[in-house]
Amino acid sequence: MMKPGLQLRVGQHLALTPQLQQSIRLLQLSTLELSQEIEQALADNPMLERVDDPLDSAVRLAPNGGLESAGHDSGQAQASAEPAPADSGSGSENRDEADPYAGGDSSAYAEEWPTAGTRGSSDRDDEADYPQLAGSAPSLRDHLGDQLAGTLASSRDRALVTLLIDELDDDGYLPTPCEEILASLPAELEIDEGELAAALRLLQSFDPVGVGARDLRESLLLQLEAIEHECPDGHESVELARAIVSGHLDALAAKDFKRLRRALKCTDEALRDAHRLILSLDPRPGARFSSQTADYVVPDVVVRRLEGQWVATLNPAVMPRLRVNDVYADVLRKNRGINGDLSGHLQEARWLIKNVQQRFETIQRVSQAIVDRQRAFFSHGEIGMRPLVLREIADILDLHESTVSRVTTQKFMLTPHGIFELKYFFGSHVATDSGGAASSTAIRALIKQLINAEDTKHPLSDSQIAKLLGEQGFVVARRTVAKYRESMRIAPVSQRKVL
């Protein structure tokens, strides 16, 4: 039978205080997630406020009926909210240490990290200031509807064409079979296949040419038909292109020109002209009417060349300017212990301000360390990338490897060669014949460079690329070349060959 007892053990462990947990969590957040976190904190904590309030520059109606800037009054309110010169006799320069309820020093973070400058009013225009006034491009449905309104079709035919327009996808194709569309219509309308087919032919006569097709082959054939009507002189090339599209698209996609010549019994010149004509067609006729907008990444760090050195600086546009509300802090300082909730909010606000500042300082340190190790990349591009692992940066900055991993995830750097995630600068290495190592990113850049400079009539195979890399001192297997080529979405040698 076991008896209860006491044991004393001595050991070291890291206590994850709430402040440390918050610091770790903020470090791994992206810029958007950090912004959402701060907005939530501003809504929950009355002791926390931001200096860069978007309403500060708002224009409002003054009591006398005129217009005034809200920023002017808010500035006066801020000035009047400053604590009066100390009646208690404590020095203002040591308030933070002497008095936990003082809030004046918390605005130092806001002053140290200014926001980006705003554009002058002289180069503004109506559409920039009021985006709702900017005209929007018509959608594919609107574009087709306008053309339908200009036809002499009956109301019944217009209804059928409108139904077909609603079935089109973003590329202008009709993915739903006509049989399914016909089956979905009420039986009392008595619409037959011929009537629906006539409505589809009317739709396919609209701009953009190729719209309303059931597949790629039909869309290309519609475009070739339009070209034949517009340019009757190129009848032979159109006929050959039509034959290729009708029955040999697979061979064309594989660039099997020998098979195409045998099947079509044509010369190289005629096949070249037909191929060029097919390449001029639009495989996605409705895509230019798509209303989808591109997603933009706001960089956390900007790299510039200053006095011959590459320097990483934080982007002020993504850095919030926070401070403790001086009015509430002054109330707590004068009435200590009266409101325990506000005291807790004050401590949380101070923690958040400090942890946000520490987050950006860590991002800047890691970014500068990356820049120092990858100077050749910033000067020469991808071909100058050197091997780099997280531990190398962690050892340089005396940080834990997991901290570097958090900093480099979903944080972006603006460079002369584009915007890259910080993790982009880390990667595997390839051995060199001198016993050194080269970055896999640099090897990819070399492969791309060799392929771009190849003779398109006699493109380089993966084995030939591996041999050329070996002549430059890089030990790369053919399988590795193929893997890197596929990762860059470069077609194999058989599909890169042209006539």
Characterise the protein shown here.
This protein is α+β, with helices and mostly antiparallel strands and 499 residues long. Among the domains are: 144-289, no CATH class; 301-496, no CATH class. The chain is 49% helix and 8% strand. The protein has helices at 18-27, 31-44, 70-80, 95-98, 108-112, 126-129, 140-149, 155-167, 178-184, 193-204, 216-230, 235-247, 249-253, 257-264, 268-279, 326-334, 340-373, 375-380, 390-397, 401-407, 440-452, 462-471, 478-487, 493-496, and strands at residues 48-50, 59-61, 67-69, 301-306, 309-314, 322-324, 412-415, 418-421, 429-431, 437-439. A four-stranded mixed beta sheet has the order 5-4-7-8. β9 and β10 form a beta hairpin. α12 (235-247) crosses α15 (268-279). The protein is extended, with a radius of gyration of 34 Å. The model is unreliable at 71-134 (pLDDT under 50).
